[in-house]
Specification:
The protein is α+β, with helices and mostly antiparallel strands. Helix content is 50%, strand content 12%. It has two domains: 2-392, DD-peptidase/beta-lactamase superfamily (Beta-lactamase, 3-Layer(aba) Sandwich), CATH 3.40.710.10; 396-509, no CATH class.
Length: 510
């Protein structure tokens, strides 16, 4: 991701001189240059959408206080409705910077002290609230962990009422604050930090989190296609979310599209046009047109990491072709996004797509780098007239490998099951029985191994001992379903081994 961010800034390096020369030489040169550059961008996106199997994509490019390019590509849903710059998408964790902006607005009004313990704003009896500050939540140095939030994500889906945020925030407080220790904590990414911040906004402002964001951020930035609930977004043309099933895009209709209790951490909706307004404010001291949503000092604070390579307030630093950038990926079920800002070029890029699964991530070390991350970085490279950085395997190539392995392993397991069934159900031939040549211990260990997979799958599915299993079931249902089928086949093979063993022992007694 850091290399991608640098590519974003290099794009700005190219486009800056391009526009400065255009201003001196006349408007026709601007038009010709823009037409040429953005034609390359269109061709690049068309190529990437095919290789990455994206049903729809929206793009916004801004520089300084100008919106340079807005365009939608592909389809928003199965009816063939085209994606436009006004089409809403899920923005995922990009929404964390919106929550941070809300907190900083209240801080500038004197309503929140960033260095005050959160106990001042959150009614909780736990000692951890006495020494964890608002600033630590913003910089994700509270000590909370992401993997421990998964169980909340799974359980809070049933909470759809107006108190969902409060209930989820207090649940996080119960989970983390009673175990917190008063020591300096390193940066650890966790949705829990921003859920608690959203609850603080709600407590301090006297408005619901959603109403506050609409009144104090969306409205002044003219973000008319931005929404805080799924119902609002769906009523105004939300792109249809998709998951990939063995590489094929399938519309998602399940319950995890929107989790109200996690809204401040990643469940807001916006369009490429609206997020372009937001990026303009981020690059112009909090101003968009005649409205200001935050002071220039507040914007700098948002974008500055306390320690390089950690986390600012909704933003992370990176590099694209050695060019410093700040950015944030976003992902929720069926949606992915990436935004980059190249500070020294005052260049910003936002990319949305309406499909996401676990294979979109770069495993194992850069899971925050997703398909839209590569595309946004490539656009910055193009704008800077630089070679597009390598993005590794495309989705088509990844699924070619995955589907090939799935096919080979499936054929192998089916063959071993067939051989076992043939020995078990066919005529008994003691001279050819492999059981007569194996010790009982070896036979029993093989039977146990055949049943072990089914046992673990049942345990993981019926409990939340490992909640990441349930998250994987949501984001990668094809491979999880295949794994379940394979464990059932192995258990069937183990059952036939038991029958074979019983028949073998019975024939020996006769």
């Amino acid at each position: 991701m850091r290399m991608r961010m640098i590519a974003t800034i290099l794009c700005g390096l190219f486009i800056f001189p391009l526009f400065s020369s255009a201003r001196s030489d006349g408007s026709m040169q601007v038009e010709r240059s823009e037409t040429s550059v953005f034609s390359e961008v269109d061709a690049y996106i068309a190529r990437e959408m095919k290789q990455q199997r994206l049903p729809g994509l929206a793009l916004g490019i801004v520089q300084g206080d100008r919106i340079l390019y807005l365009r939608g590509y592909g389809q928003a849903d199965s009816t063939g409705r085209p994606v436009t710059p006004e089409t809403p998408f899920g923005i995922g964790s990009i929404g964390k910077s919106i929550t941070a902006m809300a907190v900083l607005q209240l801080a500038e009004e004197g309503e929140i002290d960033l260095d005050a313990p959160i106990q001042r704003y959150i009614p909780t009896p736990y000692n951890g609230a006495e020494f964890i500050t608002v600033r630590q939540l913003l910089n994700q140095t509270s000590g909370f962990t992401q993997i421990s939030t998964f169980s909340n994500t799974l359980s809070s889906i049933d909470i759809q009422d107006q108190d969902a945020l409060e209930k989820n925030a207090l649940s996080y407080a119960d989970k983390f604050l009673k175990k917190a220790v008063q020591t300096e904590q390193p940066f650890k990414y966790s949705n829990a930090n921003y859920v608690l911040l959203g609850y603080i906004v709600q407590q301090v402002s006297g408005q619901s989190y959603g109403d506050y964001v609409k009144d104090h951020i969306f409205a002044p930035l003219s973000m008319q296609d931005s929404y805080v609930t799924l119902d609002e977004a769906a009523a105004h043309g939300l792109a249809k979310p998709h998951r990939r099933i063995f590489g094929y895009n399938v519309p998602y209709e399940g319950p995890y599209i929107h989790i109200p209790g996690d809204a401040p951490a990643g469940y807001l909706y916006s369009s490429a046009k609206d997020m372009s307004h937001y990026l303009v404010a981020q690059m112009n001291g909090g101003r968009f047109e005649d409205n200001s949503v935050l002071s220039s000092e507040g914007i700098r604070l948002m974008q500055t990491e306390p320690v390089p390579g950690t986390y600012a307030m909704g933003w992370m630093t990176d590099q694209i072709n050695h060019l410093p950038v700040i950015g944030q990926p976003g992902g929720s079920i069926g949606f992915q996004a990436q935004t980059y800002i190249v500070p020294e070029q005052q260049l910003g890029v936002i990319v949305f797509a309406n499909v996401l699964d676990a294979i979109d991530a770069t495993w194992p070390n850069k899971t925050h780098v997703i398909t839209t991350t590569h595309i946004a970085a490539g656009i910055i490279d193009l704008l800077n007239n630089d070679p597009i950085g390598g993005s590794g395997l495309s989705i088509s190539q990844k699924y070619g490998v995955v589907n090939g392995l799935v096919f080979i392993l499936s054929i192998w397991l089916l063959y071993t099951v067939y051989r076992t069934a043939k020995r078990c159900l066919g005529p008994w031939n003691p001279d050819r029985s492999h059981h007569t040549k194996l010790s009982i211990k070896i036979i029993i260990s093989r039977i146990i191994l055949n049943f072990a997979g089914l046992f673990f799958v049942l345990m993981l599915s019926m409990t939340q001992v490992v909640p990441v299993w349930h998250i994987a079931t949501i984001y990668q249902p094809d491979l999880i379903l295949w794994l379940k089928i394979m464990t059932v086949l192995m258990a069937l093979k183990g059952s036939m081994e038991i029958i074979r063993l019983v028949r073998s022992n019975g024939m020996k007694k006769l």
